[in-house]
Amino acid sequence: MPADRNAFPFPRGLPAVSDATDRDPEFAFELRVCRWAERAWHPDGLRPAIVARQLGTRERRWDTVVVEVDPEAFAARRALSTDGFDSDLLRVVRHAPADWAWYRDAIPEPDFPWRHVVPAVHRAAGRGVVEKRRGTRNRVEYRQTVPYPEWVERIVAIENKPNLDASAARALADQLEHDVSRALADEVWVATEATGDRVEPALLEDLPVEVGILAVGEDSTEVLWHPSTLTPDPTDARRRLVLAERAYDRGWRSYVETMRPDCRYFELDRRGRALVPKCAAKGCYQSQRECAHSCSAFEPEPPAWRMNGWPIDGGPGAGVRRILAARRDRVRERIGDPQRDP
Ligand code: SF4
After folding, report:
1. CA dist., res. 277 & res. 27, Å (int)
2. Are strands 212-216 and 130-134 parallel, antiparallel or unpaired?
3. pLDDT tens series, the chain, 342 aa
4. DSSP assignment of 52-65
5. pTM of the model
6. N- to C-terminal Cα distance for the chain?
């Protein structure tokens, strides 16, 4: 963010910015958990992983998703494309043959009409991740540019509950039971805010025994309960890969796409090793929902803030987007480097 972002007089009548963690803290906590996981996954020892948030299936959305990766294969996946593949593209790219072939000979028969596959072949070719041509009898043929790598090792789901008291644990229990029995993820955790207090045994009893519990502090994280390793059904392999591709595409900093970094009150505040959105007008860590087009306190950043480089680089709001995108790219470049310190 430009140094002059906060150099403008703070408007009269607005509350001073305070560490109001009691105001909708779940979003800020979730971002801290994502950042911690990005830097320090797994609690038993470092494993290369990418992190995303608010992902899942139609039935269940997880707060944080950690995809453990094979570093070399991840580098190959990244070389193929820095964007994720949706499920239609994934079908085409994953089954792309080494030599020219009719798409119907290369791809397993889908549970919908073949004609819906053709646009995805064209899209994949348009992105340069496969090559296509018209073959005999005017058939659409295609082939890989490079093979789609097997980059996903494990998928881990984390439910974030900063105030994990007994009633919150009871409310979570059914969802976690579902996660454990469904076993779409290899491991399920609950992350809670570290308080330094002794953990009530009754609280642990309310959660399924297979679910791990993490106490996340500003600078350190403690495992309160180790999870069991689940056994995903092999028939879920494609669904898990679609989930991993969405995690790769979205990451966890994409929240900024729906928030208002172009508002004069939008700031990024450092919490531990994470940058968390903070609203100078409301004096709190605002939620993603309230920092939207409907926010009545929104004010556009003054044009004067955009003088440096504007209109080419935009103002501080555009700077926020650039900072977050650069952080994401830097972290991904370092995956696989044993000396990494993202
Ligand atoms: S849009 Fe609203 S919540 Fe977001 S920074 Fe501006 S005033 Fe705060």
Report:
1. 9
2. unpaired
3. 333 323 323 233 333 333 334 433 789 999 999 999 999 999 999 999 999 999 988 888 999 999 999 999 999 999 999 999 999 999 999 999 999 999 999 999 999 999 999 999 999 999 999 999 999 999 999 999 999 999 999 999 999 998 888 888 888 999 999 999 999 999 999 999 887 776 655 567 789 999 999 998 877 888 989 999 999 999 999 999 999 999 999 999 999 999 999 999 999 998 888 889 999 999 999 999 999 999 999 999 887 776 655 555 666 788 888 889 999 999 998 885 655 555
4. EEEEE-SS-EEEEE
5. 0.87
6. 19
Rg value, the chain, Cα:
23
Stated as kind and residue range, the H or E segment containing 173 is: helix 166-182
Which atom, in ligand 1's list, is nearest to the CA of 263? Answer: 6
Buried (b) or exposed (e) across 8-35, using 16+ Cβ within 10 A? eeeeeeeeebeebeeebbebbbbbbbbb
Instruction: Report helix, strand or coil for 299.
Output: coil
Ligand 1 pocket test, candidate residues 17, 279, 288, most atoms within 8 A of CB: 279
Ligand 1 pocket check: which of 298, 299, 301, 320 to mutate, most ligand atoms within 8 Å of Cβ?
Answer: 298
